[in-house]
Amino acid sequence: MKYVGQRVSRVDGIKKVTGDLKYVDDIKLPGMLHAAVKRSPYAHANIISIDTSKAEKLPGVRAVIIGKDLPKRAGLYLTDKTFLAIEKVRFYGEGVAAVAAETLEIAQEAIELIEVEYEEIPAVTNAVEGMKPGAPLIHPELENYRIAPVFQIIPGTNVSEHFKLRKGDVDKAFEEADFVFDTEFYVPHIQHAPIENHVAMAKYDKDGTLTVWASCQSPYAVRAALSDAFDVPLHKLRVISPAVGGGFGAKAGTTLEGIVIPLSMRANGRPVKLAYSREEEFTSSYVRQAMHSKFKTGVMNDGRIVAIKNEFVWDGGAFTEYGVNIAKSAGFAAVGPYDIPNIWCDSYCVYTNHPVGGPYRGFGMAEIHFGIEQNLDVIAHKLGIDPVEIRRINAQKPGGTTATGARVDDACSLVQCIEKVAEDIDYFKQPEQPKDSKKVRGKGIASGMKAPSMPTNAASSAIVRINEDGTAYLSVSAQDIGQGSDTVLTQIAAEVLSIPPEKITINTGDTQNTPYEWQTVASRITYSAGNAVIKACEDVKEQLLKLSSIKLGIFERDLKLEDGYVVSKIYPDKKVSIAELALGLNFPDGSAVHGPLIGRGVFIPANILNFDLETGLSDNPVTFWTYGANGVEIEVDTETGHIEVLKVAACWDVGRVVNPTLIEGQIEGAIVQGIGSALFEEIKLDNGKFLNKSFMDYKIPAVGDMPDMKLTFIENPQHDGPFGARAIAEPAMIPSAPAIANALYNALGIRINRMPLTPERVLNALKEKENK
Fold first, then answer.
1. pLDDT, tens digit, 9 for 90 and up, residues 483-510
2. Domain 457-603, CATH number (from 2.60.120.10, 3.30.365.10, 3.40.50.1000, 3.40.50.300)
3. Which of 8, 174, 483, 576 has its CA 20 to 30 A from that of 521?
4. Are 653 and 726 in contact (CB under 8 A)?
5. pLDDT digits over 128-178, tens only?
6. Which is nearest to 411 in space by CA: 403, 393, 399?
7. Active site residue: 542, 562, 730, 768, which one?
8. Domain span(s) for CATH 3.30.365.10 in the chain
């Protein structure tokens, strides 16, 4: 292929490095007002009264709203949230009132003048405790909320989703097992920390037209949620996302959009902008859910796992409108990339008075694999089986079964990935120990899997227009949030149309002018939007061949696209440029054939099947799985407890590499993000109150934390992927943390069952080991 598989430069690269790319906060409209939000100082409290009179009288204030002004609940999967608190607050930092003013300074002064009287009430600060009878109910009206039919609430409790997986006969398998092991793990909340904070602006016109500019990953999903929440018909609601400076899931749903809309309505239609501070980014946008996991594992002498009974308890936070889907998706991969005949899994999403839990890179997979992959190492060491070998024994292989009972696709190359990583990290060779006797090195390995989590009707669409000079416009609503999708989709279009990528301009993120896209989540864009682009280009190609057949007098079957021309396969000198055909054909008698060339493409995965709500079983609840493995070498300072990741090897079956540079960047970024969650990142809460809501106290990886990396790919084409491509943007993060934890055990013989592996926890574990 000419363009697919090549290191094509990012199509948005020049604009990004020169600053020409405009983000929402760069947009300044005439008459624009600035918004600020009054936030709760409590995690759980009744609102006794709100007095906004002083704020309303402040010169320069143009609108003030409170929760009762926008009472309708919103949510993508479960309609449980309001954009401002009504009657009570459910998490620290929840908005209770908002102001629009002529300047940001005036707006901030105004919110200080708003007087709120609270009655603090007991908070739920632990998801496991929140499930118990008698726990304070955070949403007593839960059973009245609208919810998608694939989720199951437990009325009268804090459980907003209970996913059940029942495969085989677990009790019998435990009785027959040679060994039974019990382990527990915990993953804390972490923050997405995108470079660009959340920003939104709304303008409500006199004719009822509402335009929202938002730094969001999924303009059409945001449009649907806002349309429902504010009763604005879709043809009157336009969502524009000009550019997104990172998301990782934090910008997948609605957040501050629901605040600027009513402010604009109250301010006589003037545009209103709200930009989160970094502190608000921590407290008031999505966080990755915390999660408690338990594993009971039945194993035979030879290392075969015959049964697993596990429990995942997700700390969904104050609203779980998106979080319920994470609990469900985690259940589909309940035992990771292993073929286990007997499985019992309960995955619960639980309300707490913590920040709102939402989608985060990996969509639950990194959280559950932290336990799955360590649990496997615990078993391997206790049985005296090498950790690589126990993975070979239990790995999903072509023709086997997944946790839900689906057949494992012939494209599964997990064993090859594990073996390649072991080779690249030189796993079976003891690491060379440093000269400093206080430092010890160790190696660890972990596998991972992830599927695009999407419903049966998750559509992608694309439109291609050929210009009169032979260039093209490609329109999609898939958002490039840094992963490089604009470039990949352009390469795919270039390959089908046989014109250089530099002759194609891609347009995205405008629900009025770009076609429908379900969501930019789940590592699905290359797969779904890529297929839509192929279909749109094939539509144009068919039109070009028909026109050329007429003009050249050659059968369509004997024509092909080549370097901007339609060329005869038999007589290469007979050709016509696509530029000449862009507007159709006109004949001397005044007649014409076709009009401007426009191609349309729609793609909906054909093989997603619903699952049984009582057993969780399905022949194919997801369209495909991406498999791979990471291996690491670390160095631990036994005096300070500091862990340094020295080397990482990663091997993933990506189906087909569309752009080597971009896929390498995705995996490198995923590995480093995984290192952050493994070693540094943890939101610290005290009775629901944030203690580390800035980068002064919350560390993310920096350039000095980058290890040496060796990346390899297996190209086992996905049968229905665009040119065989499969997802990779999220999966490579999944095994990073457990591989580091396993390397720590390899180095020092200590097992830390919770993230992050901080120096303090390392030193405490060493002391416990010495005492034993």
1. 999 999 999 999 999 999 999 999 999 9
2. 3.30.365.10
3. 8
4. yes
5. 999 999 999 999 999 999 999 999 999 999 999 999 999 999 999 999 999
6. 399
7. 730
8. 287-454+609-771, 457-603
